Amino acid sequence: MSIKGKFITIEGMDGAGKSTQIQFMKRYLEDKGYKVLITREPGGTIIGEKTRAVILDNKHKEMDSRTEALLYAASRAQHVSQIIIPALQRGEVVLCDRYVDSSMVYQGKGRDLGYKPIKMINDFATQGLEPDLTVLLDIDPTLSLQRIIARGEGDRLEGEKIQFHVAVHNAYMDLAKMYPNRIKVVNANGKIEDIRIEVEKLLKNIFKGESIYEATNSYCSR
Ligand SMILES: Nc1ncnc2c1ncn2[C@@H]1O[C@H](COP(=O)(O)OP(=O)(O)OP(=O)(O)O)[C@@H](O)[C@H]1O
Ligand SMILES: [Mg+2]
Q: Could you say which residues bind ATP here (predicted)?
């Protein structure tokens, strides 16, 4: 597989500020001349949408944790092959709101399946495609829960209690330790503007020494 672009993911608990910061990231990179695609699972693929609808349906209370993990991986497989890989092959920067790390955290730790099986099914699902950079917005779990409640939203996952949020937070910290080169932790408890500046530093680093010409026209093998 020949990949020219860069693949960047953003992670963090619900309400951590991912949607807010990803828009800043897009603007920052576009100003530098990169072509940027923002996406999130299921990414507009019909198969992914249908799969996701089964997972998030509040009526499906009997769903086994393994079923849930496999459905997320199935939705991701379609998103990767239909949307992300083609964009990378066109030389674009792909900014993805949540990716495999979310499954490691929510299904691996949150649903107690363990990291190993989640990593295994997702390596298969993603054809081994790993991000060049993962920005992890690290927010205090009580603060993220407050934001979710303030929004008045809720699906099957957000209905869980604070203990679940603490477990998710701890799992994200586990991952940051497991993949220190890829995952960069940004303190997300502060002001939107301060977080934006920290995230831009990470972007600057990942594109260091690379001209726009190289980023959009040359092949780099991985
Ligand atoms: N640093 C911040 N300080 C205060 N409020 C913030 C901050 N960042 C984002 N918000 C607000 O918190 C809410 C959640 O932010 P956002 O939607 O960006 O989070 P998210 O990580 O995308 O959440 P989800 O996982 O649920 O999609 C929004 O109302 C947003 O305006
Ligand atoms: Mg969001």
A: 12-19
Cβ atoms of 4 and 219 within 8 Å: the answer is: yes
Q: What is the mean pLDDT of residues 20-25?
A: 98
Distance between CA atoms of residues 122 and 199, nearest Å: 26
- Taking the whole predicted model, whether its pTM rises above 0.70 is answered as yes
Torsion sign, CA atoms 160, 161, 164, 166: positive
Nearest atom in ligand 1 to 158's CA: 26
Sequence letter at residue 208: K
Question: Per-residue pLDDT for 132 more than 80?
Answer: yes
Instruction: Kindly give the number of the ligand 1 atom that is closest to the alpha carbon of 12.
Output: 21
Binding site members for ATP:
12-19
What single DSSP character describes residue 3? B
* Contact call for residues 5 and 74 (beta carbons, < 8 A): no
In degrees rounded to 5, what are phi and psi of residue 96?
Answer: -115, 125
Residue type, 174: D
Which ligand minimizes its atom distance to the CA of 15? 1
The CATH number of 6-217 is which of 3.30.420.10, 3.40.50.300, 3.40.50.2000, 3.40.50.11540?
A: 3.40.50.300
